[in-house]
Amino acid sequence: MLISWDLRHPMVHSYDMRIEAAATPLPERFPDDEIGLMTYDEFLAFRNPDGKHHESDTYDFSLVKLNRDHAAPVGIARDRGETFEVSKAAEGYRIVDKQDKLVGLIHAGVGYYDNAQMKSRFPREVIAERGRDNERVDLGVTSTKHVKYLSEYVPLISPIAKLNQARYPVVLQHITVKGEPMVVRAEKKPVLNKRTSLAIFNHEGYVVAQGADEWGATLLVVAQEYRGSGLGKIIGRYWYEFNPASKSGGFTNAGEANAVALWKERVREFSANGWYSQLIREGRITYERVKAIVKDAKVRPPARQEVVAPKVKATGDILVFADGISFIVYDRAFLDEQEEKWIHGFGLFRDAEVGSFLFRIEYDRPFAELTTKIALQMARDNGEKLYDGGGYNDLLEDIEKYPGVEREGNLIVVTRDLVPLRAMAAKEKQQRKAVDPYDEKFYSLQELANSKWD
Fold first, then answer.
1. With 114 labelled, which of 47, 60, 250, 407 sits at a CA distance of 20 to 30 A?
2. In angstroms, rounded to a whole number, what is the distance separating the alpha carbons of residues 147 and 102?
3. pTM of the predicted model, to two decimals?
4. Residue 200: which H helix or E strand, with range?
5. CA 74 to CA 214: how far, in whole Å?
């Protein structure tokens, strides 16, 4: 794969456009539409068989065209040198900081935020400029709520976000593009070459890129405001992952450049995996043919000898490292391939004058409940009550639903076992030590768990 994502599970990932060599074995056969075995000219003829070209503004969409509901400015709130801009959406308010990053939402009197520091500075009113006069506008906040991922609550205030979410209900991936959290969604579960419509949502629930079928041809678009962010490559990569046989009904200049970039990355992936070398060794392709393919991708012809490592797949065997201070939830596949995609949960405890508290907890959404239970069980095993009063601790979601979890003011008390954590930790240690006697993989596990959600 070009990117370290497992598309079977929705995750959160940073997208940095780097190509990493993957330990992936050579497939027994490739389909006829495998672009990594095409030269530059063959690829263009395959993707755009009629050789059509369109003017650059033919498919020039802005956010307004892709999304019709936009918030109207209301006013500004200031707190301890921090400035927040508040705008009115159809069913509430959104709050952004001076970097235009979403930091809060207001719906039905409840203020939602994901950064604990916002609890004491959440704006209840703003100053609205009315010509030469200023007017105080009450935002109607009666309570606030700390949430894990603020982007999940945007549909509360935006009908467009709700409509977009209803149109694309299937979450394929949580990603981060140039610091902005985004979500890749689909109209339904994609099936190979069935051309299911795809979209990328920004943190406000607006569609910023789309991949769709238009009269049998592929249409890939990126909102004008997001040009240059790499979204064209991202949506193209997803589209052709599921629809490798799709053709274009004609290229704009930007569309052709994006298509060629995807072809080059596929050629580089072949080279990084050592596939060209092995194809030559097995007599399935000639060296001259490979040279013709890699020439226009500016990739060196492969070496004659390369070792292809065995393919690593998810095992479904979830291991839990736990030492009383931190824990990591991961698939046993990590012991064969040290990639962050195999890490599914992480937690770190600290102590302060308020007592023990969960300083950090992160997880891929499918592993939220298991990760939360492990955190609570660790507190129980340590014989500690867990501080949860804010200011120090990370957010624990929906803990009231777990039997035996009680609150005593700002403290959480776990009165019964939730998971057999000690047994899980013993199993993890035994399996890991058998293949990692010098802790090299363990150090990699700790490093990647700490950095995955940054």
1. 407
2. 13
3. 0.47
4. strand 198-201
5. 39
